[in-house]
Write the structure tokens for this entry.
Amino acid sequence: MPLNIYIISHPIITILSTQIIYSLSKNNKINEPIYDEINFLLIYELLRKWIKVTNIYIKDINQIKEISIFNPKESYTLFTNLEKCYNIINHLKILIPKLSLIHINTCKDKNNNAKIYFNSNQEQYLRNNKIIIVEKILNNNSIINFVNELINDYKIHITSIKIICIVCNKKVLEVINKKYSNLEIYTTKIINI
């Protein structure tokens, strides 16, 4: 089964991602407001298919009222570098019920390999949650190791994990496809590096 990659081609997302990719290639810096906007829009795209809404009908004397609510059994955990995404957190907390936030940091380990670190004391938030991982660029195997850790150590099912990134490296996607073909990735562009 091929990897589920969704390349979001909405015109606004395309314009924002082009600006980010250009600024990264030119001076290796990201315009933070643009980065916040594109993350918010990518999360919105991901949630359109993932959030389940229940309609409740209340019969009044003269009319029937319809109320839409989120499924109370669903909860979400967002893994991201909170220092980079702090501007959208308030928006997400309003839009997504039962949202837990976990800070991740990509650093080099003692073998100079990229590794994602997070506070494992928050394990109770992971069980039975839908996991959203937000990365700027998917260009090394640290994300594979992180997904491994979530699946093997925390017993998260692969269908409960989705990744959002602005740009994906084709080689990393090939490695992910070999190991986790059911993983869904939302991105704006796939590049060859």
